[in-house]
Specification:
Elements (H helix, E strand, L loop, with lengths): L3 E7 L5 E7 L6 E5 L7 E6 L2 E5 L9 H33 L10
């Protein structure tokens, strides 16, 4: 089962904003394709959602592209770290205060 949704909102000036959600599941496909002479392409697919991330140039990679790539990587690292923290908290809560699981020996 996919967990994706998208909405389009129009502002008072008529400008459209697209907001997409991809809730990562076992059916989510994530891949990074690399090339010798062109920028990498990051793809995230889940159901009807198909997100492709790359730079605007054709083969030419700039320092600004590198800066955006590092910003993306930093955001993903923070996302993963928060998931790890919350999963650990949930494991601790599931064990219960009187349960020996998760306690140091």
């Amino acid at each position: 089962m996919t967990e994706t949704s998208a909405s389009i909102r129009f502002g008072a000036d008529g400008a459209a904003t697209v907001q997409s959600y991809v809730r990562l599941t076992a059916s989510t496909y994530i891949r990074c394709c690399t090339y010798e002479e062109a920028a990498p392409i990051l793809t995230i697919r889940d159901g009807a959602a198909d997100i492709t991330i790359t730079n605007p140039g054709r083969g030419e990679v700039t320092e600004e592209d590198v800066r955006f790539g590092r910003a993306l990587a930093d955001a993903v690292r923070l996302y993963a770290a928060e998931l790890e923290k919350l999963a650990a908290r949930n494991r601790g809560t599931a064990a219960g205060p009187d349960d020996a699981a998760g306690q140091a020996a």
